[in-house]
């Protein structure tokens, strides 16, 4: 009897579940984060500490911004049981169109961005129409789209169209936020301020989330695990702050503009998936389409919105890509769709749909980015890099399927 009381006391104190049971139940979620840390540490060792030098850390985000942005849209598509094979070609087409109007029609860079976003929505509308209202499978529709938009990219961009390197447009991917707080010794003041604010917000959000779940009578993580997670999060944010603050030189460095773009995109779509009706409808349609339709959800409208979002995010990736290279070409965006799909599956999205979180997709994108950068530093050839990335995707999907069979 006393043993029962002790167990009840332990349950009440730790949020109804032990640390071991909680970690086992969420092994998939935390396993992705542990995999990212393990890969970073591995390449940090293999590269002799080169991987996590401040400038390389900043370059990791600048070079992989496109896959992070595309992974957000692709995750929504995969949750809805679809796939989009055309995003790389769409990025090339929209980038080529933007370069053309700036170079040959001398259109203002800001108006060009608006035009590129509008074209992305039209592309999403076109593909969403065939999938949602005609009933052509997304695989076939976007396979056709891959060919169509690659052809259009070749027609528009030709061999190459350069963009003025001094244009503010190029600054999107290459420049940093102005250091309004000056330098604190060798460190960028703005990066330190943003880092401290990020730590405070992280702690407050985690505590608020846990208290809300306790108030609602929901199962929560053990308090000991909560404390461990807070400590780990603070250390990671603090280390990232140090790397950002140490990057660049006395003239430029700190927080890259592209990181702000990624942050805005991620924040908006996390709000959509977690807080808005559309997000619940996407998960419902992906989890069980027939049941969602019977409950009154217009699945065709949901499908259309998913592809509209994908078109919009592909246009943002096109803007980022054109800004980074300051040039458009017919071969731009090659393989981008595979990187985005791989990031989603590595990050925990289910092959059958209905499951997936944006943080997981971002971690998957970072894993792909670290693999690319680490292997590049080591001088590994591109063909070996492709083989390794392919194996990683297969292992990630196999792990997901095996985990589901064990639960069943």
Automatic annotation (TrEMBL):
Q: Which GO terms describe its molecular function?
A: transmembrane transporter activity
What cellular-component terms does GO give this entry? plasma membrane
Question: Transmembrane region positions?
Answer: 30-52, 64-83, 103-123, 130-149, 183-205, 226-245, 251-272, 384-402
Provide the primary localization: membrane
Key words of the record: Cell inner membrane, Cell membrane, Membrane, Sugar transport, Transmembrane, Transmembrane helix, Transport
Cell inner membrane in keyword set: yes
**What is its biological role?**
Part of the binding-protein-dependent transport system for D-xylose. Probably responsible for the translocation of the substrate across the membrane.
Q: What is this protein called?
A: Xylose transport system permease protein XylH
The scientific name of the source species is: Lactococcus hircilactis
For this protein's source organism, the top of the classification is: Bacteria, Bacillati, Bacillota, Bacilli, Lactobacillales
């Amino acid at each position: 009897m006393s043993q029962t009381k002790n167990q009840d006391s332990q349950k009440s104190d730790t949020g109804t579940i032990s640390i071991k049971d909680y970690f086992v139940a969420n092994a998939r979620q935390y396993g992705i984060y542990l995999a990212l840390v393990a890969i970073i540490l591995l390449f940090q060792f293999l590269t002799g500490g080169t991987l996590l030098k401040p400038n390389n850390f900043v370059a990791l985000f600048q070079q992989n911004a496109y896959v992070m942005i595309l992974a957000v849209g692709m995750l929504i598509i995969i949750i809805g049981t679809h796939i989009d094979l055309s995003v790389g070609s769409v990025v090339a087409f929209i980038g080529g169109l933007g370069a053309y109007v700036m170079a040959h029609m001398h259109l203002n860079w800001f108006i060009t961005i608006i035009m590129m976003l509008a074209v992305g929505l039209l592309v999403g509308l076109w593909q969403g129409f065939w999938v949602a209202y005609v009933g052509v499978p997304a695989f076939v529709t976007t396979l056709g789209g891959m060919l169509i938009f690659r052809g259009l990219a070749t027609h528009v961009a030709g061999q190459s169209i350069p963009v003025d390197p001094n244009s503010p447009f190029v600054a999107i991917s290459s420049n940093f936020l102005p250091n309004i707080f000056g330098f604190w010794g060798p460190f960028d003041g703005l990066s330190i301020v943003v880092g401290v604010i990020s730590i405070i917000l992280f702690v407050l959000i985690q505590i608020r989330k846990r208290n809300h779940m306790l108030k609602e009578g929901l199962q929560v993580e053990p308090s000991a695990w909560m404390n461990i997670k807070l400590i780990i999060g603070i250390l990671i944010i603090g280390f990232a702050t140090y790397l950002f603050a140490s990057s660049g030189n006395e003239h430029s460095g700190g927080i890259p503009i592209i990181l702000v773009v990624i942050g805005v995109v991620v924040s908006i779509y996390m709000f959509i998936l977690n807080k808005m009706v559309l997000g619940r409808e996407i998960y419902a349609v992906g989890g069980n389409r027939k049941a969602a339709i019977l409950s009154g959800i217009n699945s065709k409208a949901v499908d259309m919105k998913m592809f509209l979002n994908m078109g919009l995010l592909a246009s943002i990736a096109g803007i980022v890509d054109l800004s980074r290279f300051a040039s458009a070409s017919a071969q731009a965006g090659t393989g981008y769709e595979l990187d985005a799909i791989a990031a989603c599956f590595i990050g925990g999205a289910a092959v059958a749909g209905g499951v997936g979180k944006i943080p997981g997709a971002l971690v998957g994108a970072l894993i792909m980015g670290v693999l690319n950068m680490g292997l590049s530093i080591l001088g590994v050839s591109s063909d070996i890099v492709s083989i390794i990335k392919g194996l990683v995707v297969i292992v990630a999907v196999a792990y997901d399927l095996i985990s589901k069979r064990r639960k069943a």
